[in-house]
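Session log. Operator J.P. requested a structure for one protein chain; no other inputs attached. Running the standard single-chain path with C-alpha cell output.
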Amino acid sequence: MAKANPAVEQLTYEQALQELEKILADLESESRGLDDTMNLFERGRQLIQHCQTLLDKAELKVRTLGQNNDIEETED
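Structure written below.
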C-alpha cells in the first residue's frame, strides 16, 4: 500500500520544501507513467503554492513587527 502524503496545509515551510525537492529529483531521475507524472506535478504545484503562502505570511509579520518597532522608537 502506498504511503499517503500529509495534507499540504499541515506542512511547515521546511517540510514542504523538502518534499518538493524530492518530487523534483524523482521527476528528473525516473521514467514514470503519465498518471504518476501528473500526480507528482500537481502535488508539486500545491507545495509551491503553500510555500509561497507561508512566505507571504512571514513577510507580512516582519513588516508589521517593523512598523510596530518604528512606532515605539518615535515615541521615545
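Operator note: Residues 14 and 59 are 16 Å apart (CA to CA).
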